[in-house]
Amino acid sequence: MNWIETTIPGLNFTAGQLVFALIVIVAGILLGKLAKMTSNKILSSVMSENASNLVQRIIYYSMIIVATLAALSYLGIDFTGALLAGGILGIVIGFATQSVVANLISGIFLQIDKPVSIGDPIGIIDEHLYGVILEINILSTSIRTFDGVNLRIPNEKLFTSKIHNYSKYVARRVVITVGIAYKEDIQKAKDLILKTLNENSLILAEPAPLVYVDELADSSVNFSVRAWAPSTIWFTVRTQVVQQIKNMLDEGGVEIPFPQRVIWQGE
Amino acid sequence: MKKKFGQYTIKDGLSISFKDEQITLENISGDSYIYRRKHMGKTTSKTIFSSKKGEIKIAIYPVRPIQMPRQLAHNIMIKLDPPVALPPNSHITHHLTMPIEIGVFTISKKNNYMVDAFSLSFPKYTLYGQPNMGYICRLHYSSISSEEKTMQYEEATIMMKFQNKSPNWATINKIVMDAYEVDLYLDGDAVYLEDSNLVIGEDDVASLFLNNKSPLRGLKEVPVAAETVKKFRRGILERTGFGVTGKFIMEHGY
């Protein structure tokens, strides 16, 4: 009798069967790798890199698990007890890893729904967090906040939060409130503000800038200034425009008043 | 008037003016040169580079108007003043203008490098379509005439054939094109857009065709500028979905 047919002591299978089972597992790993490489080529053209990586990992580990179960089954290992124990263990693990699973599922939905992409400047409104998406992983998302801090946020938190994506659309509106003194000529101030907007090359010609009297406030007549700018440079444009309007009103001799209060004194 | 666009071999220095912009190249040591651009006497751009041979080759050519003030958009919108009204099943050719910028390149056998680009006209941008699905475009207002009327070094001539294939009258207010698809041609210092035509289809959708050939006999394609954008042209086209070479479908109206 050669070694292939020798039964391993304490086990119900031969060395040959064990070798074959190991070959099945190795073949499963190799097939998994092959499937991962093939799917990479197909998926990378139809979905984002992160989503593609996630699907590839699922395919890879699924094939290994299937191959391992097939090999064990071939060796005659009975799974009934293991399934029962696994079921109970699964419930225990399920309770223990609730948040992990929630983050995993949210990670998958983030890839499908795509509320944000890598490089997008975003704001998580409820949390008052603002920054640029660096990485979307299976369980968490990395954000570089505007003050240069790396922030890791669980995917479940991100997915269920109100997110403002500031670069989803190509253009974004700049809104500024400008107050002038009551004694000033409203039309003159309005013309000066519109001139400033038209002379800024980064303010879009269309949709056309809009300037109107929005409020007769305590100390000033307030204009609402609304103009559109490319989303990618919105912040730069906003900061430029505020300063340019101030300079233009100064040059035009239009007063921007301080808060004032008229006090009547009894005799 | 001496031609300004072209290639220069420089040993000591160079100085060329375009309206308020003056560009100079000065030898600061044996093999090092400093490039300066001055706007009304004030230096606005400065680059130092070196050459092994003790001389340097520079090219100055018109480039697509997408470099200044920064690379914000790769589309150009030409607003027609007045608009062109076309009867059903008709065609007409008009002269229009489009903006250009001036590019300064260093030339070598292996590759060319854009040192600087500047615009003599005031660049303004606009949105074509809606904020959620439109395009940022460099804006240019063009009059319409039967002959060439361009601002030298600021504009290129477009000889556009308008064609209305629809059964309805069409009023064309604007033309939008992808600058990465644009090729420019030269006749001395006069700049022309490649042969082009705008077709209003039977479905009332306008398509702009850039036909990749000279609009007139004897013009030469700008030799350097094309290379700098051709590299990433394809990538941009694939991402934006405009995969058809030389064709821009004006899906947000004309």
Can you lay out the helices and strands and say which pair or pack?
The complex is a heterodimer of chains A (267) and B (254).
Chain A: H1 15-43, H2 49-74, H3 80-96, H4 98-113, E1 121-124, E2 129-136, E3 140-145, E4 150-154, H5 155-159, E5 163-165, E6 171-180, H6 186-199, E7 210-216, E8 221-230, H7 234-251
Antiparallel strand pairs in A: 1-2, 1-5, 2-3, 3-4, 6-8, 7-8
Helix pairs in contact in A: 1-2, 6-7
Chain B: E1 6-10, E2 13-18, E3 21-27, E4 32-39, E5 42-50, E6 56-63, E7 75-86, E8 90-99, E9 101-106, E10 113-118, E11 124-128, E12 135-143, E13 155-164, E14 170-178, E15 184-187, E16 190-193, E17 196-200, E18 206-210, E19 220-221, H1 225-240, E20 247-250
CATH topology of the largest domain in chain A: Alpha-Beta Plaits
Number of strands of chain B: 20
Strand order of the largest sheet of chain B: 8-13-17-18-20
Give the helices and strands of chain A as they follow along the chain. Answer: HHHHEEEEHEEHEEH
**Major β-sheet strand ordering of chain A:** 4-3-2-1-5
- On the 0-100 scale, what is the average pLDDT of chain A? 88
Determine the fraction of residues in helical runs of chain B and give it as a percent range.
under 10%
**Number of structural domains of chain B:** 1
Strand element count of chain A: 8
Largest sheet descriptor of chain A: 5 strands, antiparallel
Shape of chain B: elongated
Count of helical regions of chain A: 7
Mean pLDDT across the residues of chain B is: 83
The shape of chain A is: elongated
Quaternary state of this entry equals heterodimer
End-to-end Cα distance of chain B, whole Å, is 39 Å
CATH class of the largest domain in chain A, anyone?
Alpha Beta
Portion in strands of chain B: over 45%
Low-confidence stretches of chain B: 231-245
Q: What class would the helix/strand composition of chain A place it in?
A: alpha+beta
